[in-house]
From TrEMBL:
Organism phylogeny: Eukaryota, Fungi, Dikarya, Ascomycota, Pezizomycotina
Residues covered by the CENP-V/GFA domain: 3-130, 191-333
Family the entry assigns: Belongs to the Gfa family.
InterPro entries listed in its UniProt record: CENP-V/GFA, Mss4-like_sf
Keywords assigned: Lyase, Metal-binding, Zinc
Protein name: CENP-V/GFA domain-containing protein
Keyword Lyase among UniProt keywords: yes
């Protein structure tokens, strides 16, 4: 069994030895939470954590911003790279780490090393708060992991009277959530985007595509939708804090402020100051990532090599229908994920991809 060597964010300011983990063997058991708070404070489709045996060091914590999302939890993200790193329970003082920051020594060699992951980092034991996700989020696609059945709950098992969702209900969610037509009456004119605290808000106009539109980012079937895909690369993982980064790909011309002003993107990231609390982090020579400086949600990925498309993190979309996967706006690719060779939770990737 492989063991984690440490916990770290992308920029390295947050760094803890694996001895901080309550269970230092792998995979670490974890529950995937689909609640609104977890999604909107991170930009992820789901959030899953591992238990720590104490508080992270002062050195790491001084490099984070704390955000008290409710009376129950305070969330911490790296000030510099925006990675979601820790959660503290205010009730019992327990500390958790976001599962994506666990690194094994072979992965920490970094990008381009293309080391095939050795097994899974986490072992998801159940999904909860599917009711918050409305369409069930990504949970209905991740119910069979490595031969195990993973139960899904509307809220939490301890407060659930009826037990887990039935297989038929999950199949139904799986069939309907991604196939909502773009002409769906509940879709609305613009797609709203907001992090949990509301410091990063914007609007997205419908796709400008027609039957002659070309490009990898143009959906093949429904031109009224935007293309969406999961990325498993190490940079996404260590700036998000979770192992699956959901991106949708949108031409810059389609972004507007809440006052309907076009949003200006460009290599000078100061131009995106039109969005109140946006912070920027250059994760490589040609890539700038942006996150909310108040609540930590991952918002954008901009590559100067392809300025005609901006990646937007799906976990901060606010579909009018409440759908987490926003099937009425997004055309999800389940044939491929980006950078599968860098995936660390292979069982999740395997479950998500269409057989
Ligand atoms: Zn960092
Ligand atoms: Zn949650
Ligand atoms: Zn990536
Ligand atoms: Zn925010």
């Amino acid at each position: 069994m492989s063991v984690p060597s440490h916990l770290a964010c992308h920029c390295g300011l947050v760094y803890e030895p694996s001895s901080l983990l309550a269970n230092s063997s792998m995979p670490n058991e974890s529950i995937m939470c689909h609640c609104n708070v977890c999604r909107h404070t991170t930009g992820s489709l789901g959030a899953w954590y591992v238990t720590l045996n104490g508080a992270p060091s002062e050195k790491s914590l001084t490099c984070t911003t704390a955000y008290k999302s409710s009376e129950k939890y305070t969330r911490y993200f790296c000030k510099k790279c925006g990675c979601n790193v820790f959660v503290r329970s205010e009730r019992d003082g327990r500390w958790l780490a976001c599962a994506g920051i666990l690194e094994r020594s072979e992965e920490s060699k970094g990008e381009g090393s293309h080391v095939k992951a050795k097994g899974n980092v986490t072992n998801i034991t159940c999904h909860w708060y599917l009711d918050d996700a409305v369409d069930g989020g990504i949970a209905p696609f991740l119910t069979k992991l490595g031969g195990r059945n993973v139960p899904c709950y509307r809220t939490e098992p301890s407060i659930e009277d009826n037990g887990p969702l039935k297989e038929g209900d999950l199949l139904q969610l799986q069939e309907t959530s991604l196939t909502q037509p773009s002409s769906s009456p509940g879709r609305g004119r613009m797609l709203e985007v907001s992090c949990y605290c509301g410091g990063c808000q914007l609007l997205i106009a419908p796709p400008p595509y027609n039957s002659t539109s070309e490009g990898w980012f143009v959906p093949k079937a429904d031109h009224g939708k935007y293309y969406a895909r999961l990325c498993c690369c190490r940079s996404c993982r260590l700036t998000l804090g979770f192992t699956l980064q959901p991106w949708t790909y949108i031409p810059p011309s389609q972004f507007f402020t809440v006052d309907n002003e076009p949003i200006v993107f460009g290599p000078l990231t100061k131009e995106t100051r039109q969005i109140d609390k946006l912070s920027h982090y250059q994760s490589s020579e040609f890539v700038v990532r942006s996150f909310c400086s108040v609540c930590g949600a991952t918002i954008f990925y901009q590559s100067f090599e392809r300025p005609y498309i901006i990646d937007l993190s799906v976990g901060v979309l606010r579909s009018k229908m409440g759908n987490t996967m926003a099937g009425e706006w997004l055309d999800w690719d389940r044939e491929i994920v980006s950078k599968r060779d860098e995936a660390v939770d292979e069982a999740l990737v395997e479950a998500w991809l269409r057989k």
